[in-house]
Amino acid sequence: MLITKRRIRSLKSNIGNVVPGTKFVMGIKNIERYGDTLEHIGFTENLEIGETVLPMPQGSASEYNANGKYLKHKDQPKETIYKTREWTREQWAGRGQTETVTDFVEFSYKRYPRTFMEPPSIEFTIASTTNGDKLITAPVFEYNGNDSEFIHIINLFLELFGECQLFHENLDEIIKPPINRLNWEILPQGPIPWQQVSRIIMPIIDKAPKSNRPVILDRIETIENFNPDFRAFGKAGFGGYIVFGFEEKNLFIFESIKYGNATYIFDNNWEELSQKTKAEILDNDLHKARIVHRINWGDQIKELFNDLGIS
């Protein structure tokens, strides 16, 4: 079955009644038609079998898929939220003199409560049929009566490609390849001068709102001062994530430029982490620690390093 719409809102009106337990593979055929789009969302130009990416956001469906979204509760009283900003002011220096001082301050404001909806993190994989034709596929989906997840995957394809093919018969014809995730770009290991690192990091920071950039840069410089021996940068749907590794301590720090996030601390090995989905990485049971982006972030991260004997 082929769906060609901008988006769908109802499952029944587009594919009819679906029996719970039915398995589907959603995807597109003749992928060479979409060479530029596929490269833009994270695949290589070679389109090798097994390449797997979390698609780079291109619209509301793929943005939610990669980064989640917030549900505002306007029926509830507003709550107090805290935000850190760089502040430059004139400070009294004595003898009729003042001096310019720049530091970070935390201010509060009121907003409606929000519930964060975790990103579905649906990945796309280049697979093939038994006759050698290449496909872009989502993971095998078993319908359990929940329409919203089914609709999301279809809309993800429609947003990125303008079509979505539903395969639910002869699934054995689709060969499941070994997965090769392309979510990270790894820098050469070992000490790297900050000037070289900053040339890569600054374009990432520049994607953040201007008022947030000094705070983000300060967090990154704080971690860099402890001389990580490993750095990786998120690609495609992982864009905005930077990983700092201290391999002797088996410590990996995931930092994000997105405001409202946190710094995630892991003690897994990199080979294991790099092959996990975004949903798995952000799962509460996987990380060792989570440091919220608040004014005391610097004190907490330094305490973490001190406890591990990293100076």
Structural commentary:
Helices cover 25% and strands 32% of the residues. The protein has 9 helices and 19 strands. The chain has helices at 12-15, 35-41, 60-67, 147-161, 194-205, 213-224, 270-274, 278-281, 297-307; strands at 2-3, 23-28, 51-53, 69-72, 79-94, 97-111, 114-117, 124-129, 134-137, 141-142, 164-167, 174-175, 180-181, 184-186, 230-234, 241-246, 251-256, 262-266, 289-292.
Low-confidence stretches: none
What is the count of helical runs?
9
Rounded mean pLDDT is 87
Number of strands: 19
How far apart lie the N and C ends? 59 Å
**What coarse outline follows from CA principal-axis ratios?**
globular
Number of domains: 3
Using only CA atoms, what is the Rg?
23 Å
Class based on secondary structure composition and strand pairing: alpha+beta
- Assembly type of the chains comes to single chain
Write the layout of secondary structure elements.
Layout: E1 2-3, H1 12-15, E2 23-28, H2 35-41, E3 51-53, H3 60-67, E4 69-72, E5 79-94, E6 97-111, E7 114-117, E8 124-129, E9 134-137, E10 141-142, H4 147-161, E11 164-167, E12 174-175, E13 180-181, E14 184-186, H5 194-205, H6 213-224, E15 230-234, E16 241-246, E17 251-256, E18 262-266, H7 270-274, H8 278-281, E19 289-292, H9 297-307
Helix pairs in contact: 3-4
